[in-house]
Amino acid sequence: MSDRQPLLIIAAGGTGGHMFPAQALAEVMLRRGWRVRLSTDARGVRYVGGFPHSVEIEQVASATFARGGLINKVLVPFHVTGGVIGAVLRMLRDRPDVVVGFGGYPSIPALAAAWLLRCPRMVHEQNGVLGRVNRIFSRRVDVVACGTWPTTLPEGVEGVAVGNPVRAAVLERAGAGYIPPGEYPMSVLVIGGSQGARILSDVVPPAIAALPEAMLRNIRVSHQAREEDGGRVARYYAEAGIDADVKPFFRDVPRLMSEAQLIISRAGASSLADIAVIGRPAILIPYAAAAGDHQSANARGLVAAGGAILIPESRLDAGSLSEQIAAVLGNPKGAAMMAQAAFGQAMPDAPQHLADMVEELAKGGKSR
Ligand SMILES: CC(=O)N[C@H]1[C@@H](OP(=O)(O)OP(=O)(O)OC[C@H]2O[C@@H](n3ccc(=O)[nH]c3=O)[C@H](O)[C@@H]2O)O[C@H](CO)[C@@H](O)[C@@H]1O
């Protein structure tokens, strides 16, 4: 590396699942004196508010076969080719030291350009099963960093277990003291990933309303519901006399998690990493339609360690969920052991580890 400030390009698709780990790496690299540029599409740009202000933003065309009509699908190869040509020209001008892809179609232009120009590059896969873009590039990058371990990788591809980097606001609460459930106000946090989950809005309110009266009196719920479900969820809690805060997205999830006696959640990779790093008992309901059932794979470690209870969507109903909630909240010792076990699965040094790998690559060394 010369004396100029090193440049990292982070390429990530437009969902929270890709953007939160990208943000965590950006935060560390800026602290290490790097310039950081985020390459994403219009959907991803909605998340940049959470990124440090000094991160440069480069918006690429949204090109995916997964959405849009026939015309969109016909145009995808042109968008992708245009995106790659643009990325090659910018890289020839700016000579990034390392390019890291976090998955999703918008990461294609930067990764393809880095491959063509032989620029040091890696992908980070958050899930227990490789996403489509990361699978394509897994043989064309220097390193495949894995957030969930073990990850199913294509034959001949080696991965490095790094963990899913969590945001600074989560790290500040790593292993925060847990107050086990008892005869005092208890908090239950319900989150459905970055978009919210309809099934949790259908099943969780009646499950909570069916808890034993003595328990119910002390419960406070923070429930993330999709915009269109928020009204009915809030009404349900109000009519059942339950103290509830219903929002489409909580900006202060790290605080809410640290205050919670129990978390009910989907099994998206960052949600699980946050739960483990803060160390809280959880009931997990993996999204059954996720590609390759990767949410079940994500949850495996936490559940096997005794930090979480898994309920498959196919067996989820208000009655059985209510029993599971009562079992956790009615057993302070068991809940404290779950919190401990969850923290035992955390990889809080994932952001630093990933940052070390970026610096290794920049020096020309391989990280594995
Ligand atoms: C439906 C779907 O396909 N989801 C995928 C998507 O997850 P999705 O985008 O749903 O997100 P994750 O669960 O990985 O991350 C969500 C993040 O949002 C935070 N949060 C959540 C709710 C809220 O109100 N406020 C808030 O800050 C969580 O604490 C977490 O940090 O990408 C992930 C990573 O590739 C995958 O593992 C998921 O399977």
TrEMBL record:
Name of the protein this chain belongs to: UDP-N-acetylglucosamine--N-acetylmuramyl-(pentapeptide) pyrophosphoryl-undecaprenol N-acetylglucosamine transferase
SUPFAM superfamilies xrefs: UDP-Glycosyltransferase/glycogen phosphorylase (SSF53756)
Class of enzymatic activity (EC top level): transferase
Keywords (A to Z) from UniProt: Cell cycle, Cell division, Cell membrane, Cell shape, Cell wall biogenesis/degradation, Glycosyltransferase, Membrane, Peptidoglycan synthesis, Transferase
Glycosyltransferase family 28 N-terminal domain location: 9-144
CDD domains: GT28_MurG
Catalysis performed (reactions): di-trans,octa-cis-undecaprenyl diphospho-N-acetyl-alpha-D-muramoyl-L-alanyl-D-glutamyl-meso-2,6-diaminopimeloyl-D-alanyl-D-alanine + UDP-N-acetyl-alpha-D-glucosamine = di-trans,octa-cis-undecaprenyl diphospho-[N-acetyl-alpha-D-glucosaminyl-(1->4)]-N-acetyl-alpha-D-muramoyl-L-alanyl-D-glutamyl-meso-2,6-diaminopimeloyl-D-alanyl-D-alanine + UDP + H(+)
GO molecular function annotation: UDP-N-acetyl-D-glucosamine:N-acetylmuramoyl-L-alanyl-D-glutamyl-meso-2,6-diaminopimelyl-D-alanyl-D-alanine-diphosphoundecaprenol 4-beta-N-acetylglucosaminlytransferase activity; undecaprenyldiphospho-muramoylpentapeptide beta-N-acetylglucosaminyltransferase activity
Pathway in which the depicted protein is active: Cell wall biogenesis; peptidoglycan biosynthesis
EC identifiers of the protein: 2.4.1.227
Membrane topology value: Peripheral membrane protein
Residues that bind UDP-N-acetyl-alpha-D-glucosamine: 15-17, 127, 167, 194, 295
Functional note: Cell wall formation. Catalyzes the transfer of a GlcNAc subunit on undecaprenyl-pyrophosphoryl-MurNAc-pentapeptide (lipid intermediate I) to form undecaprenyl-pyrophosphoryl-MurNAc-(pentapeptide)GlcNAc (lipid intermediate II).
Annotated GO CC locations: plasma membrane
Stored PANTHER family: GLYCOSYLTRANSFERASE (PTHR21015:SF22), UDP-N-ACETYLGLUCOSAMINE--N-ACETYLMURAMYL-(PENTAPEPTIDE) PYROPHOSPHORYL-UNDECAPRENOL N-ACETYLGLUCOSAMINE TRANSFERASE 1 (PTHR21015)
GO biological process, one term: peptidoglycan biosynthetic process
Family: Belongs to the glycosyltransferase 28 family. MurG subfamily.
Subcellular location: Cell membrane
Superkingdom of source: Bacteria
Domain Glycosyl transferase family 28 C-terminal: 188-353
InterPro entries: GlcNAc_MurG, Glyco_trans_28_C, GlycoTrans_28_N
Pfam families linked to this entry: Glyco_tran_28_C, Glyco_transf_28
